[in-house]
């Protein structure tokens, strides 16, 4: 395969992955606590011939390859709901939830009560307090969550929400729509501030994502056109060589 075609294909593969990431961002615009992602890429150089036998020296070509998916942890818009089980962390920090595979970390605070009276995520994962699950009896009412994460009800104090932070949030790995996992143990965040009756929306901007999608699509089409022209040029060269030999 010609180097020009190989370079073009490498760029198309990365652009295709970018489109997938953008589509996922757009699909989760209404997911509470969702954090948008961006695909980073880098230029890599192809090996250069070391021989000096030819008059025209080998040129150094480059191609593009996927580097990493980067998560944008900036805070999304806060929407007041009035629901006592909707919670927001103002600033940095993550709620701790207990998934079947272990602890997971979330920004989305659109919690509910399950059949056992536990405070859980929409997926049914128990939200963790400093003493474990937070559980309410059926006859409890007037649920209140203080700014420091202390949970109370008509039955008295229920415990304090476990809110943690990471020295490097960039090492968190997204799991599903809005949960994260980490191989590094988090640290407690005693300074975290919690707001009750509100949820943190996705930090995705539809206008920004659509504009980026248009730019990526145009770039993909331009490369397709270049690859086609390269292919047509090669075909004509082969036809001409064939006619000369005949």
Automatic annotation (TrEMBL):
<dbReference type="GO" id="GO:0030694">
    <property type="term" value="C:bacterial-type flagellum basal body, rod"/>
</dbReference>
<dbReference type="InterPro" id="IPR012836">
    <property type="entry name" value="FlgF"/>
</dbReference>
<dbReference type="Pfam" id="PF22692">
    <property type="entry name" value="LlgE_F_G_D1"/>
</dbReference>
<keyword id="KW-0975">Bacterial flagellum</keyword>
<protein>
    <recommendedName>
        <fullName>Flagellar basal-body rod protein FlgF</fullName>
    </recommendedName>
</protein>
<feature type="domain" description="Flagellar basal body rod protein N-terminal">
    <location>
        <begin position="7"/>
        <end position="35"/>
    </location>
</feature>
<dbReference type="InterPro" id="IPR053967">
    <property type="entry name" value="LlgE_F_G-like_D1"/>
</dbReference>
<comment type="subunit">
    <text>The basal body constitutes a major portion of the flagellar organelle and consists of five rings (E,L,P,S, and M) mounted on a central rod. The rod consists of about 26 subunits of FlgG in the distal portion, and FlgB, FlgC and FlgF are thought to build up the proximal portion of the rod with about 6 subunits each.</text>
</comment>
<keyword id="KW-0969">Cilium</keyword>
<feature type="domain" description="Flagellar hook protein FlgE/F/G-like D1">
    <location>
        <begin position="89"/>
        <end position="152"/>
    </location>
</feature>
<dbReference type="InterPro" id="IPR037925">
    <property type="entry name" value="FlgE/F/G-like"/>
</dbReference>
<feature type="domain" description="Flagellar basal-body/hook protein C-terminal">
    <location>
        <begin position="195"/>
        <end position="238"/>
    </location>
</feature>
<dbReference type="GO" id="GO:0071978">
    <property type="term" value="P:bacterial-type flagellum-dependent swarming motility"/>
</dbReference>
<comment type="similarity">
    <text>Belongs to the flagella basal body rod proteins family.</text>
</comment>
<dbReference type="Pfam" id="PF06429">
    <property type="entry name" value="Flg_bbr_C"/>
</dbReference>
<keyword id="KW-0966">Cell projection</keyword>
<dbReference type="InterPro" id="IPR001444">
    <property type="entry name" value="Flag_bb_rod_N"/>
</dbReference>
<keyword id="KW-0282">Flagellum</keyword>
<dbReference type="InterPro" id="IPR010930">
    <property type="entry name" value="Flg_bb/hook_C_dom"/>
</dbReference>
<dbReference type="Pfam" id="PF00460">
    <property type="entry name" value="Flg_bb_rod"/>
</dbReference>
<dbReference type="InterPro" id="IPR020013">
    <property type="entry name" value="Flagellar_FlgE/F/G"/>
</dbReference>
